[in-house]
Structure formats: structure tokens, C-alpha cells
Amino acid sequence: MGSAAAARIGYNVRPMSRYYDLHSHSLASDGTLSPTALVQRAAAAGVDVLALTDHDDTSGIVEARQAAAQAGITLVAGVEVSVTWGRQTIHLVGLNIDIDYAPLQAGLARSRDYRNWRAGEMGRRLAKHGIEGAYAGAMARAHGRIISRTHFAQFLAENGHAESVRAVFHSFLKPNKPGYVPGEWATLEEAVSWINGAGGQAVIAHPARYTMTASKRRKLLQEFVALGGAGLEVVSGSHSRGDNFSMAQLAKNFGLLASAGSDFHGPENPWVELGRLQTLPDGCNAIWQDWQFDACGTRRAAS
Ligand code: AMP
Ligand code: MN
Ligand code: MN
Ligand code: MN
User: Sorting pLDDT into bands at 50, 70 and 90, what band is 6?
Assistant: First the structure.
């Protein structure tokens, strides 16, 4: 059908091929751009629909929404919830959440309390290992917002304890390394219920990145689906192309919708830039397939 005919009968005639990036970070967590600068950079890179998904925190959403309205793109209210599942840390992205939903905010506040305690414990463990000042150094880099391992990594790298932020993670901040504290985050069930209760859709973030056997991964997806999880981040800036294809197959097998997100944290990590995501592999059902937009490009809540 031509677009004129579609318009006559009231179809949505906005361009079909919007560019979606449904995973990104700002200064509200461990990103390095303000929500406004992030949104402006995304718009300049050709992103039409951006989700801001800071770790365990939604305090950047209001500013990002205003910036998106100014830049003429759509902002999806999101969050990346830290989960402990079978002694492993898993990340869930929540999309199109009502940020005023009290149980969600109470849960995120509990996760941030745990973050604060963990930061002190990381500082104590690093001090025992001969590295002084890591807690204060990380806090200074968190700008009074949530404190992340990334902030510790920045301090350690700047003070010559390793060559790069990546190298710091490898030597100090991963499981079994001196600064690592095992996670005690929300359960999978809690995180899905916070997101669903807030009217959102829960998505397993960067699924190819977790170190687990194929059978454990299937168990995770089974539980996630049973709890009401909606999607899998099939395309991720932190996946290889091959990962994207294998995750597409997995999404199909479990009847999960496919999401796509850069996991952009800032321009200093040039290997993950905005506007460069692979398109969803054939056969995926996009998580945005039923999303409705009004004439201004603002996403309307699904009825
Ligand atoms: P946290 O939630 O405080 O435990 O920190 C997790 C964050 O650390 C992730 O969201 C990434 O931004 C960052 N991160 C994890 N592993 C690495 C790595 N190997 N290199 C660089 N950054 C990493
Ligand atoms: Mn991060
Ligand atoms: Mn993550
Ligand atoms: Mn992320």
C-alpha cells in the first residue's frame, strides 16, 4: 500500500525504519556524559529511539526526556537492574518503565544501599592488598551519584596500578581478584516484578557475556520466561557479530522478543560508539514491534 492510501485509512505512516538503541549510560551511573550530552550525541549519530538505562538508578530520565524532546528523538525510560542469580551477576534492562512506581524505586534504593556498602568493602580489600585511597578516589569519580566498579577502575588506572580501565578489571575487580566483592543484588524474580509492575518490559542484557555453560544459560532463560521476562538483548555493543546470531537463535527458541543496545558509556571507550549497531538478524521479533508513537514521536504507553 502506498503511503497516501495508508494515511487515508489512518495507518501509521511514519518511517518504518527507525534506529533503536535501547541500552545506554549517563553520569547518573557509570557513564561519562550528562543525560543531555548523551541524547544530543545519540541524535547526531542517527539514533531515533534511545533508552537511557543507568545502573540501578533512574535519576537521569527527566533530564534525558527534555533533551530528547529538544533534539526531536524518542526517549525510552529505562534502567539496568543488577541481579544475583546462582552466584553470578546478571543484568536486566527494564524498558518503558514508569519511574514513579514505588516498589521499583524502593528496590533500586536497596540496590544502591548495597552498592555503597560494597564500595567500602572494596576499599578495605584493596587497602589490605596495599592500595590506599581507592574508596575516596572512586567516590570522587562518582560525582555523588551511584558508585560502580568503573569508578574504582578509573582511580586505579589513573594512579598507575594497571595500564587501562580494562586491565584494572582483569587484575583487581573480577571474581577471585583482590578488590572483588561477590554480588548480593536483587533476585531475578524481584527484578522482573519491579520492571513488570512498573508497566515495562524486562530484557536480559548482553546475554553472550556471561560466563556459563549452555545448559545453565538455558536454565536462566527458562526461569526468566516463567517469571514474565519479555526479551533478550540479541544485538549488543559488547557482543561479537557471531554472538548476535547465536543470541537471535536463542531468543527464537525461547519465544523472547529481541532487543538491541549499544551499552554506550562515553566517548572514551571508542570500541562502543552510538549509531553503529548491527541490525537484528532475520527471524527476530523486535521488542519494539508493538510500540506506539504519537505524532511528535513520543512513545505512548501500550494500552
Ligand atoms: P558494577 O555494577 O559496579 O559491578 O560495575 C559493572 C560495570 O563495570 C559494567 O556495567 C561495565 O560498565 C564495567 N565493566 C565490567 N567489566 C568490565 C571490563 N572487563 N572492562 C571495562 N569495564 C567493565
Ligand atoms: Mn556500566
Ligand atoms: Mn551490564
Ligand atoms: Mn549497561
Answer: very low
CA angle 291, 295, 300 (to 5 degrees): 35
* 274 vs 272: CA distance, rounded Å: 7
12-38 confidence digits (pLDDT tens): 455 568 999 999 999 999 999 999 999
Mutate to test the pocket of ligand 1, among 53, 83, 169, 170 (most ligand atoms within 8 A of CB): 169
Out of 148, 156, 174, mutate this one to test ligand 1's pocket (max ligand atoms within 8 Å of CB): namely: 148
pLDDT tens-place string over residues 106-138: 999 999 999 999 999 999 999 999 999 999 999
Quick one: cell of 129? 592488598
> Do the beta carbons of residue 120 and residue 135 sit within 8 Å?
yes
- Give the Cα separation of 32 and 55 in Å (integer): 13
pLDDT at 234: 98
Nearest CA to ligand 1 atom 21: 166
pLDDT of residue 298: 64
Q: Which domains does the chain have, with CATH numbers?
A: 3-108+187-300 (3.20.20.140), 115-173 (1.10.150.650)
Helix or strand holding residue 249 (H, E): helix 241-253
Q: What are phi and psi of 148, to 5 degrees?
A: -125, 160
pTM tops 0.85, yes or no = yes
Longest dimension (CA), the chain: 72
Q: For residues 66 and 77, is the Cβ–Cβ distance under 8 A?
A: no
Separation between Cα atoms, residue 147 and residue 123, nearest integer Å: 12
* Whole-angstrom distance, CA of residue 96 vs CA of residue 78: 6
**In whole angstroms, what is the distance from residue 261 CA to residue 53 CA?**
10
Residues facing residue 85 across a β-bridge: 88
